[in-house]
Every structure is written in structure tokens, then in C-alpha cells.
Predict the structure.
Amino acid sequence: MQVDLDTLRGFFRSAPFMADLGVEPTAVEPGRVWAALAVQPRHRQHTGVVHAGVIAALADHTMGAAAQTCAADGHWVLTAEFKTSLLRGASAERLECEAWVLKPGRQVSFTEAEVYAVAGGERRLVAKASGTMAVTKAE
């Protein structure tokens, strides 16, 4: 499926949870998507770092979008399984995620992502994720 940045922005906006979180795609190419989130107080947990659920949701949706760029027309991608490894707490002004397709498929695609915390001009890797995406016929 040919997906340009404007189309991808529409996909992200049409997902109410992603829109509520404030996740925005920033770049796209076949099999690869970049997205970002401006961290707000509501994204943090009691210790002040970004909540793990926010990081996982960012990685999951960005991996799904990357897989969508490889899906055939008339098909949608849904997460079948994903794993997120949190490497360190994310004290950040912004989160950036890069996701890519390891192996596209007609029924299943395998993806990975990295999430970075950006603060004070420094960018640190805070999470790695992998996902299995089911490719389904759009109805």
C-alpha cells in the first residue's frame, strides 16, 4: 500500500487513543515509519518518568503503521502480539520512535521498533519492541 506522510497522519488521527496521547507520525518510507510524542504531565507515572504504557503504545502503533506500508491494497494490519523491553526510565520532553518491518508477509508481518527519550538536546534509547502484525482483509 502506498502511504505518504499525509495519509499516515490521517491513519494516526483516526485512531482515537493515539490522537488522545498526541502521537504524530513524522516520516515514512516503505517498511519504515517514524513517530513522536511531546511529553505532557499526563504521560508520566508517579516517579515522574513516562509511563511504560505510553512507550508501549507508541511503539505498537508505529510498528503497525510500518507494516501497513507493506500491506496489499484492501488490507489492514492488526497487532497479533508485541513485546516491549524498557531499558531505562524516560525523563523526556519528547519521545521519538522508529519502527521497521523485518519481514513482510501476506498474512503476517514481523516488525521492530526503538523508542528514544529526547531532553536537553540529548537523545537516549529507552525501549526496544518487536511485534507480529496480522494482515487482514478490509471489510
